[in-house]
UniProtKB/TrEMBL annotation:
Lineage: Bacteria, Bacillati, Actinomycetota, Actinomycetes, Kitasatosporales
Domain HTH luxR-type intervals: 262-327
SUPFAM superfamilies reported in the protein's UniProt record: C-terminal effector domain of the bipartite response regulators (SSF46894)
Domain of life: Bacteria
Protein name: Helix-turn-helix transcriptional regulator
Source organism of this protein record: Streptomyces prunicolor
SMART domains: HTH_LUXR (SM00421)
Coiled-coil region list: none
Length: 353
């Protein structure tokens, strides 16, 4: 105990207080000291640096400095040994947890390592995206499903992947493409479909999900950021099944490009204006509507203006009411029959935009 502090005296024999050092030093020089000298420094007795003289209990004799040093060294040795044991225990625990981590990682890699590569792979940059698409095209033998959002497809967009489409057609691969209705008005798409012949079947909807490309129902590509400079390559069966289900349901709702769009049933309102009316009824702003339908904001607002004029609405609030009254919000079955006179709005009234 000579090397350790006590509750009453927070120091050990290795760092005596000044008073204790003076009394102990005097006891070593003289061989003993009166018990009264040690009363102000009880730490000397508690640390066993002084102990009663067997011949006269009124005196205290010192423990030899060599013995004190031995005790100190033994205490240090014990502390070092305990530290070594703690370090060894920590190392053993580290190795155990590291081993568990390696097994978990190996298991995750095994489950992710499906046929054709990792379950999810991030493609950073257009060159890596195009290279991965070329590899998937080369491996494809049966079917390609694509969803192409946006409006009229520009020639550069169509020619960018034309070499892949031609390579697929040469191997007898069938392709099904989904576009927005707006894409029908682009000559580039019509030229592309004519070039591809019966290898490609295209349909359109008012709006579609973001870009999706599926090869042989085994690998899918979707955007990973807003500007489409990053993409995800997905091979997980559950994700692929989900995307195929989404595509098939959209496909059943879509209209073949070769077929005309159905009449809205309301004179003076086009199919596109009907789509805009439904989105307006849901509370969407002009910019959101334009993006979802693949048109510019300026074009969207022009359609809204014509819609307001046709329905005789002088404000955006009144336009919402008229849309609901004629059933353009998709809720006609829930509304009472209200006769609506579709007359042009007063020219002096502000047009809703």
């Amino acid at each position: 105990m000579a090397g350790h502090a006590t509750d009453e005296h927070p120091h050990g024999a290795d760092r005596l207080c000044d008073a204790g050092d003076r009394v102990y030093s005097r006891a070593v020089r003289r061989g003993r000291v009166p018990r009264t000298d040690a009363e102000p420094v009880p730490c000397l007795l508690e640390l066993a640096l002084l102990h009663p003289d067997p011949d006269d209990m009124a005196w205290l004799v010192p423990t030899a400095p060599q013995e004190v040093m031995t005790r100190l060294l033994r205490g240090v040795y014990d502390e070092v040994g305990e530290s070594h044991r703690r370090v060894g225990s920590a190392v053993a625990a580290f190795e155990r947890y590291a081993g568990l981590g390696r097994r978990i990682q190996a298991s995750a890699m095994a489950s992710a390592s499906l046929e054709g590569g990792a379950a999810i792979r991030v493609l950073d940059g257009l060159s890596r995206i195009q290279a991965a698409m070329d590899d998937a095209t080369e491996a494809c033998t049966g079917e390609v499903l694509t969803v192409q959002p946006g409006g009229i497809r520009r020639e550069p967009e169509l020619t960018e992947g034309l070499h892949r489409a031609l390579a697929l057609r040469s191997r007898g691969v069938r392709m099904r493409d989904l576009y927005t209705h707006v894409a029908r008005h682009g000559q580039g798409l019509l030229n592309y479909l004519e070039l591809m012949g019966d290898a490609v079947e295209a349909r359109t909807l008012d709006e579609v999900v973001d870009r999706l490309i599926l090869f042989d129902r085994t690998v899918a590509f979707i955007p990973a950021n807003a500007d489409h400079t990053m993409a995800l390559e997905l091979r997980h069966p559950a994700l692929i099944d989900y995307f195929v289900t989404v595509f098939d349901r959209l496909w059943r709702l879509a209209i073949p490009v070769a077929a005309a769009l159905p009449d809205t049933g309301i004179e003076g309102i086009s199919h596109r204006e009907q789509s805009i009316a439904a989105l307006l009824a849901d509370g969407h702003q002009d910019a959101v509507i334009a993006e979802r339908l693949g048109i510019s904001v300026r074009t969207c607002r022009a359609h809204i203006a014509r819609l307001s004029e046709t329905l005789g609405a002088a404000s955006r609030t009144q336009l919402g009411v008229r849309i609901a009254q004629v059933g353009l919000d998709g809720a006609a079955a829930r509304l009472p029959d209200v006769p609506v006179q579709l007359t042009p709005v007063d020219r002096e009234s502000p047009t809703a935009r």
